[in-house]
Amino acid sequence: MSIKKEKGAHRIIVGVDYGTTYTGVSYVSSTSPDLRDIKHICNWPGPTKETEIVFKAPSRIAYPDGDLPPAVPKWGYEVQPGMTAYSWTKLLLDSDTLWTQYDDSTLEYASQTGILQLPPGRTAIDVVADYLTQVYQFTLKTLAKQITEQALRITPIEFWFTPGDGVLVCDCGGGTVDLTTFLVTQTSPVLTFEELCAGIGCKFGSSAIDRSFYRLMFQRFGSAFENLSPRYTGPGSSFMNKFEIVKRGFGQTPQTSFELPLKMKPCRPDPAHYDEEERLVTIDENDLHAMFNPVVDKVLSLVRQQIDDAKVEAGKDVLNRIILVGGFGDSEYLHQEMVKAFGSNGKITITVPNYAQAAIVQGAALRGLQGLQPTTRRCRRHYGFKLGMPFVKGVDDESDAYIDEWTGLKYTARSMKWMISKGGEYKPNYTHTVPICAIYDASQRLQSSQTLYACDRTNVQTRSFEGIYPVGEIITDFTNTDLSRFETKVIDGKLKYRLDYETKVIFGAEEGVLKFESTSQGRTIGQTSIRFKTVKFY
């Protein structure tokens, strides 16, 4: 696959995929002509690697002796059994989000077992920042050593598309599953595509299998397992590394039982589950089915919903390819179940690229190099703000009514001005502007805030606040405006100013954000940005 060169100064584009369980980094020179030139960092530091070449490093960090930064923490494969490590921290960044039908109920259980924890004095944002700082510093060292050398050529991820193809990309990671469907509109001279329908996802990745495994161990061995040090049972331990191998291989062979080394002293253990002499925990294929199936079933349910949404949007069956990427996307068992559910009729091809775990980070580098992106995007939710509207008798409630002091007209306070609609198709840099006014007197500060809201419901009303939640705020500041240019009026013995301004939303698809901007007298008096690329989580 050829990459279009961009004119200008030479650059190094770095793509980072920070996941719940693993993190990957890729890089490419802006002068490179081909997708094959995108390289992955495979020489992650640390003694706990099972092989020298690994595409991703564990998303975990430890603070030796409890020393917080500026002391240098251990991270990734540097974290050894026995260290107090912090894993799956990415999920804690979303701890305030309401639970929904597709989310993983074992997350709360896991937090009670000590897995989803934070060090004293550090927030989830702090811990993630500490970890990514180490990734950043190691990336700089790697680039300094390798950028002028002949680096390893990575097998390209190549798919052959034709205009009109509907492609569903299913990113199955450690903590989340994200789905987006695209319609290919052009393949030459460069690939172009548009989002066919709004993406969906859930907080239910392959780490849910680990949590189910822990729960099974607690049920079978009780305190004998629960009281073991995390160095023997936590992420990075020999026990969990062996289970990781079992997970990856499940479905590839007809093997029916699996042994994992663990030294413990259970009370009257069932020989079918623990060999005291050999110190081996035994699980069978039924156990693995019980761990895998809830995750796989939710993935299949999301795929079905996305297929249905795409059909409604296109008016016909347009989807003909599903691409599985991410760490769990490489699971043979998931692939088999996906083929059974969607590929058996021959209409949909299920594809797993080589090194599916690295596909997302490779795509991140390609996005930075070529600017490859959808020509249109679908918004995942409604965005707007509260704005008083003229009162309508029989529609509006009297308890929400107020008299506008400038006009003397009756208004309702329970009304929304929606600037962007859920499911709406927007081209890059689409704008929508709304005129607004505010009434001030000389005793008031010339600053105010306007809260921005979102709503995930398919249909919203302008006369209702149901289902809305705050996502941002614009601070408007009239300090540097010329008050003499605004209309004035004496109201109740006070000189009032009618401060006219406009609020504009810019659908910046290229940057992946919604930009809200307030202007008055030709100058910007307030602005903020909201990320819209995050998929809707059901």
UniProtKB/TrEMBL annotation:
<protein>
    <submittedName>
        <fullName>Actin-like ATPase domain-containing protein</fullName>
    </submittedName>
</protein>
<dbReference type="InterPro" id="IPR043129">
    <property type="entry name" value="ATPase_NBD"/>
</dbReference>
